Amino acid sequence: MNKQQGFLLVLLAISGAVSLVIVLPFVQYVLGAVIVAYVLYPVNERLVPVLGPRLAPFVVILGASLTVFVPVGYLVFILARDLIALSNGETGLQTDQVETTVRDLTGQQIDLSDSVNSLGTELLGILFTDISAMVSFGLRLSVGLALVVFVLYYLLRDGDDFVAWIIEIAPMGNTVCGRLFRRIDKTTWGVVVGHLLVAVLQGLVGGLGLLIAGVPNVVFWTFAMVVLSLLPLIGAFLVWAPAAAYLLTIGQIRPGVFVLVYGALIVSMIDNYVRPLLIDREASLNPAVVLIAVFGGTYAIGVTGLFVGPVILAVFVATAEAFNEEYDALGESAVKSGGDLSDPPEGTPEASDP
């Protein structure tokens, strides 16, 4: 390495470190934009021939925003309505029967109604009463969402150029780099899209069971199952199991047994069979590894880590497999030439150096 190369390397390291410091406060939003752009990119590619490369990303972002924010806005309305009802004592639950059953079984007297009312009042106060906190959160979220929209637009518009630039500057052959990107694409698609599809499917199927059993506030609990189902193995169980216990406690034996059997056989089947088909086959990741990645990613960078964590592990697996394939190919080439990995072929710069 000469002085010019050494200077460029130091300059690259310094500028990279400074860039990281600049981006770090917004890393959740940037990574979130990358994940969303990856999911929406096929839709954008279909619209580009019709709308053009500048208008197509705008239409895709608008459509995706409406698809997400309309249901989320409705669910926030439902949540606020239910919390107000809880704080006013309108739980929709048969708390008297639960209290009676607990007293008969344990001999302990509990006041479930007051506990539920207090919980509703506290949650309502935390989420909607502190105006200054709401304004502060709203401002941060607005800045973050604006950043996501701008980054998402340019990723959709210039995604191909960005990938081509990475392949061009990567210290690998274009063939090797292209093969690595295809493997990363396959594993990432399996993790991101499979993760989302399984969560939505499991939540909807679980919500259907709760609706059949007559569980109150089924829309809210369905949404809760969709969110919790992003946690493999344990997600939807945290909703349907307590729902079954509640029905059994208030004496609704048939609905309670139905929810218990339905959750164990139907809802859990999605985790046991559909998730491996959509995620494990494409991403080559064990469900336990996905679970660790979800918790670790969430702990490290927040909500975005639900998806970024498994993606990072998927990229690591793809890179390790690509490295292993290239190393094996290099070893086979060396064996065929009669040498080994430590002896480069004659005529190469390494072989001619003193």
TrEMBL record:
Membrane topology: Multi-pass membrane protein
One cellular component term from this protein's GO annotations in UniProt: membrane
InterPro entries reported for this sequence: AI-2E-like
Region (Disordered) residue spans: 334-354
Keyword terms of this UniProt record: Membrane, Transmembrane, Transmembrane helix
UniProt entry tagged with the keyword Mitochondrion: no
TM segment ranges: 7-40, 55-80, 137-156, 162-181, 188-212, 218-241, 253-270, 290-317
Subcellular location: Membrane
Family that this chain belongs to: Belongs to the autoinducer-2 exporter (AI-2E) (TC 2.A.86) family.
Designated name of the protein: AI-2E family transporter
Originating species: Halovenus salina
